[in-house]
Design a protein that fits this description.
The chain is an alpha+beta fold. The protein has one domain. It has 2 helices and 3 strands, in the order H-E-E-E-H. A hairpin with a 2-residue loop joins strand 1 and strand 2. The mean pLDDT is about 90.
Length: about 90
């Protein structure tokens, strides 16, 4: 469905054998401004600890506005989780 609507191929690879995964175990899409701009693989262990991004794949070069929007969204998400931020700045 994401391919038909957004021209973005996505598969949640949790149940795909490791050898057949294209990206990773728990890779999630990043939607910004009505288009998918990236994918990321998070690691979150406990409340209060930062959300760690293990891998990040851009679908295209992010504009300065997209970087700001994505960063703000991650800040809000981390606040919701009650964790101490993330390492998003290492990737965007």
């Amino acid at each position: 469905m994401t391919k038909a609507l957004f021209d973005f191929e996505y598969s949640w690879e949790v149940y795909v054998p490791k050898i057949k995964r294209k990206y990773g175990y728990y890779v999630l899409p990043v939607l910004c401004g009505g288009k998918f701009v990236a994918r990321f693989e998070p690691e979150y262990n406990r409340a209060g600890q930062p959300l760690k991004i293990l891998n990040w794949w851009n679908e295209s070069v992010l504009t300065a506005k997209e970087k700001k929007t994505v960063s703000a969204a991650f800040d809000g998400f981390c606040e919701y989780l009650g964790c101490g931020g993330s390492n998003i700045g290492d990737f965007i």
